[in-house]
Amino acid sequence: MRGRDVFIVDCIRSPIGVGKKNGSLHNVHPVNLLSEILKGVTVRANVDPSEVEDVICGVSSPAKEQGSNIARLSLLKAGFPCSVPGVQVNRKCGSSQTAIHLISQAISSGDMDLGIACGVEMMSIVPLGSDASYKPSLELKSDANILFDVGYPLIHQGLSADIIAKKYNISKQEMEEFAIESHKKAYLSTTNGHFNKQVLPIKIDGILINTDQGIRKEIDEDKIKRLKPAFSKDGLITAALASQISDGSAAVLLASHTKCQQLNLNKRARIVCRVTVGTDPITMLDGIIPATKKIIEKSGISLDEISVFEVNEAFASVVLCWQKTFNVPLIKINPNGGAIAHGHPLGASGCILMTKLVHELERVNGRFGLQTMCIGQGQAVATLIENCSYKM
Fold it and tell me: Rounded distance, CA 139 to CA 388, Å?
């Protein structure tokens, strides 16, 4: 095994709360939530925090309670030594997956041997777009946000979701069936205990929160089908076909082969390949297609060799346009449900999905797993991992 291979040693996430004032995590400050996750991942991996060489935190709205370099504030709150540095990054929905890439690249290059990638987003406290200097338009016209001209209309992601539904010939019925199935899979996974090992329970006012609040036990399929378009009059995307506004946090502990040997750390997954791409800022959400093509080309691993795919359910049309392009069986995609069911705490979702992916590969004894996320403004990220406990 090469010394500069990078391994996921452990990964953990909070339960995901509804991003409203009645949400299960609403009364927790973002710094406090992230500090609990940072403590949790090091305690579970039996790693002394003094060994951590950097903490990189993804935040999509780095403002107010989530500003002022929340990575550094949270690691101090968690009791890490002052010698541990931290920084926050913002690549919108891909923020904490980018944090995984950055820590992984630093380890691979030899700049460090052990670091934490993490993410936090408390959308009930810091609303979406709190750091923005413009409001995304629901009109596709050249003078949208003309006072903030970047050469493209700065449109709402919901409008883009409608555009790609039509571009890839995805029907409203297909998307409704996909959304319903997401809830069913997430509820079944919850009741079967598939999330137990990955979720760190959070105690709030004496009450232990250990499940994702947004997952529905009872699904009113007729109501879902009666919902009107949410973003454009002739659109297909409804509220039920979009990810939920949510609160949550997650962390991924990564280490070099040398550090794993030195500290006797359990190698759970190996980072095989990482890619980031830019794409059209109007269609924006189908960037996961070129990202997937690029990572398959760079890694030499075929789609058929991959056991589990986590494709972020920003909108139902996003996953379905990807699935139609690559013809991957739906049973392999988001097998425990996705953001339509459990929610999408933007900056945290990259580490949340990676936590789900690592645990699911181990549960089903799959070898390779692929995670990809679309990003507002026209970007996408993809990460390919290998399960270290895989048995043929």
Answer: 48
> Burial letters for 110-131: b for 16+ Cβ neighbours within 10 Å, e otherwise?
eebbbbbbbbbbbbbbbebebe
Q: Any residues with CB less than 8 A from the CB of 41 and at least 6 apart, and which? A: 10, 11, 12, 116, 118, 251, 252, 253
DSSP string, 246-315: EEEEEEEEEEEHHHHHHHT----EEEEEEEEEE--TTTGGGGHHHHHHHHHHHH---GGGEEEEEE--SB
First to last CA, the chain: 19
Partners of 120 in the beta sheet?
Answer: 249
Q: Using alpha carbons only, how large is the chain's radius of gyration in Å?
A: 20
Cα angle 376, 21, 16 (rounded to 5 degrees) comes to: 60
Q: How confident is the model at residue 133 (pLDDT cuts 50, 70, 90)?
A: confident
pLDDT (tens digit per residue) in 23-78: 999 999 999 999 999 999 999 999 999 999 999 999 999 999 999 999 999 999 99
Active-site residue list: 93, 344, 374
Q: Is the pLDDT of residue 277 over 70?
A: yes
Tokens encoding 214? 């947004």
Share of the chain above pLDDT 70, in %: 98
Rounded Cα distance between 137 and 282, Å, is: 11
Tokens 């069911």 sit on residue: 341
Angle of helix 349-364 relative to helix 95-109, nearest 10 degrees, comes to 70
CA dist 326 and 308 (Å) reads 14
Contact status, residue 153 vs residue 46, Cβ threshold 8 Å:
no
| Closest alpha carbon to 371 in 300, 282, 315, 307 | 307
Classify 130 as helix, strand or coil.
coil
Helices 70-77 & 30-45 angle (0-180, nearest 10): 60
- 371 bridge partner residues: 310, 383
Measured CA to CA in angstroms, residue 55 lies from 28, 51, 160, 234 at distances of: 21, 11, 33, 45
pLDDT higher than threshold 70 for residue 1: no
Digit-coded pLDDT (tens) for 177-225 = 999 999 999 999 999 999 999 999 999 989 999 999 999 988 899 999 9
What pLDDT is stored for residue 149 in this prediction? 85
Q: Tell me whether strands 368-375 and 379-387 are parallel, antiparallel or unpaired.
A: antiparallel
For 329, which DSSP code? -
